[in-house]
Amino acid sequence: MDAADLRVFEAVARLGGMSRAASELNTVQSNVTSRIRALEDELGAKLFHRTNRGVALTDAGRRLLPYAGRIRRLLMDARRAVDDDGTPRGLLTLGSLESTAAIRLPRILAGFAAACPEVDLVLIPGTSAEMIERTLNHDVDGAFVCGPVDHPDLEEEVVFREELVVVTAAMRSARELTDILRQRQLKIVVLRAGCSYRQRLEEVLARRGAVGLRRLEFGTIEGILGAVTAGIGLTLLPRRLVAAREHAGDIAIHSLSPAEAEVDTVFIRRREAPASTALTAFLATVRVAEARMAAE
What we know:
Elements: H1 3-15, H2 18-25, H3 29-43, E1 48-51, E2 54-57, H4 59-83, E3 90-96, H5 98-103, H6 105-115, E4 119-125, H7 128-136, E5 142-146, E6 154-169, H8 177-180, E7 187-190, H9 196-207, E8 214-217, H10 221-229, E9 235-238, H11 239-247, E10 251-254, H12 258-261, E11 262-270, H13 277-295
Parallel strand pairs: 3-4, 3-5, 7-8
Antiparallel strand pairs: 1-2, 5-11, 6-9, 6-10, 6-11
């Protein structure tokens, strides 16, 4: 058993078929089939069930898969390390909370793109839970999430601090949040499960006696704000993200105590993976931008 065998096995398991794996590996299906059979003979165990629709892992295959995936990722990291000559270049894939991408990253990304034109940057939005999983699975080089994370396989660095506020529809007269929470059929408008702001909103409302409220889930922050503006419910978001809408009279903002409102955005990356020159340059850009913003 060698790394090449495990690479073929991992591709077949991930793609669910010999032909699809052959296409990704730039070889013929017969070669993939023979490598899998040889690996099974060497291990003395069947790794796949063959079906008309493709293949499915056996119990032995499921036990082997994590090791094959780990080796594939290690080989990818090794190749990237060899190619990294100290000049920021190549693919850099990052994850981010939608709110962070909207209010913090535009200027940073513009400055980074100008300073490092040979880097191909991909930004993937999602919830904190999704970004943590993507980082652990090597799908992204790092991600901006709501902290703290405290995972043994991840390094985290505080990069931004946000003030969270409760957001409701604009009202003709000022009303306290406690009064709003007495409304019947009140709903909270949130992102899908795994959103850290969603959990914090439920905690904030529970302290005020509002529990068991119905939830409306949206896929984007724009969808959430549209629902809140229409008076469907309330939500919790960073003040920086919604301040302009409050000034325009579209929404009302309700401040919270510092203990409830302050939240750190952290950048996470895999602890064992060396940071590429591109990632190091990007994080330097983030730190400089945040220092400038703090000084303003």
